[in-house]
Amino acid sequence: MHWRFSTSRSQKVRLPHNYDAIVLGAGAAGLMCAATAGQRGRKILLIDHADQVGKKILISGGGRCNFTNLHVAPDRYLSANPHFAKSALGRYRPEDFIALVDRHRIAWHEKTLGQLFCDGSARQIVAMLLEECPAAAVDIAVNRTITGIDHADGRYRISCGADEASAPALVLATGGPSIPKMGATGFAYDVARRFGMKIVEPRPALVPLTLGGEETLFRALSGVSAPVAARAGKASFREAALFTHKGLSGPAILQISSYWRHGEAVGIDFLPDRNAGWLKEAKRARPRSSLRSILSDCLPTRLADALADQAALPGELGNQPDRMIDAVEQRIANWQFHPNGTEGFAKAEVTAGGISTADLSSQTMESRRLPGLYAIGEAVDVTGWLGGYNFQWAWASGWAAGQAI
Ligand code: FDA
């Protein structure tokens, strides 16, 4: 058996048949797992079907990789078991990844809301992770199509055409199906199912929402953005929302999309900084003004016009009864949108759902049923907020498995 590989490492080498662990997927979680285990002296095969490692890292954060968030906490992750992520996130923290980045002299900055980005390029993060994989311990094989996976006699055997490799541990790190055109697949789910693990229904998350019916009126606002508070169920986010030609996007909407379920409304407060009663105060202070002109003082003009049209409060505010003024204020504070869907996996930054945490150890990410089988990163039913949370989960879960294999 000869594994041949091409990465930034220079020569092609012959790889041994037997490994301590095989890691499927050389993305954020797989690279971290291989580096951690390799540094512990484990012999690792890291294998990917893409032509290079860490492709999502390279495009992340607009090419600057929002690699972690200073405010990481378990309640900023969605999962059927909200406690599952605590252990891994607690043992490998943002400070640990920042220390690694600092050791590699990669300059970074906080952009907003605790989000840390490279000053330079996401390429530095991929290069750092590759450097962290000891060449003597980690064999990296890209451009490989996995054609078979078997488990017998305590060993996992994988084949790629005529080539085979085996190990007592197999790590599923092939991520979720978001952005298929980048090579993302539901492969981890297929393998997990085959080994008897349950899958929490995968769904697009951190994804734009689409509007239909009468709400297509808002498509005319395409390109307009405003700071809002967006709500779905009990979740609420104060960030910018953006109207698009299909519906709603922007950070506040991407965040809320992870919590939104089909059939539910999304409430938007277009003036989240205003105290209750502000419109009545405006009526007293400027009775000759129209709602349109009051709104256009604090919102983009096109948005102010659209809301004033919809609110149908004609004429001067001073001529309107207070109860009408109150009703309009409440509508602006909790405008009900009824999305008819999302832009789907093609546009979703992550996949929510995935391999059920019920089948995994939260300490090691190992299957409770099948010794030696691990799942990490986005493949698992743990999904973070926008802003570096998902990479931190990839690092933390990859590190946890890397300590165990
Ligand atoms: P990841 O997707 O990184 O890696 C999976 C690997 O498995 C890939 O290399 C893939 O090629 C490989 N693979 C898939 N199927 C395979 C198969 N059948 N056989 C072999 N290999 C296979 N997060 C964040 O925290 N900050 C950010 O700035 C961003 N920005 C961002 C931008 C965009 C456009 C997207 C799409 C996503 C983000 N994210 C993000 C999310 C982040 O990229 C994501 O959470 C992590 O990459 C997940 O890491 P994983 O290693 O689990 O999967």
From TrEMBL:
Q: Which UniProt keywords are given for this protein, alphabetically ordered?
A: FAD, Flavoprotein, Membrane, Transmembrane, Transmembrane helix
Q: Which domain of life is it from?
A: Bacteria
Positions of the RsdA/BaiN/AoA(So)-like Rossmann fold-like domain = 20-403
InterPro entries given for it? BaiN-like, BaiN-like_dom_sf, FAD/NAD-bd_sf, RsdA/BaiN/AoA(So)-like_dom, RsdA/BaiN/AoA(So)_Rossmann
Q: What is this protein called?
A: NAD(P)/FAD-dependent oxidoreductase
Its ancestry begins with: Bacteria, Pseudomonadati, Pseudomonadota, Alphaproteobacteria, Sphingomonadales
Cofactor(s) listed: FAD
Q: Does the keyword Membrane apply?
A: yes
PANTHER family (UniProt xref): OS12G0638800 PROTEIN
Spans traversing the lipid bilayer:
21-38
Which parts of the sequence belong to the RsdA/BaiN/AoA(So)-like insert domain? 203-350
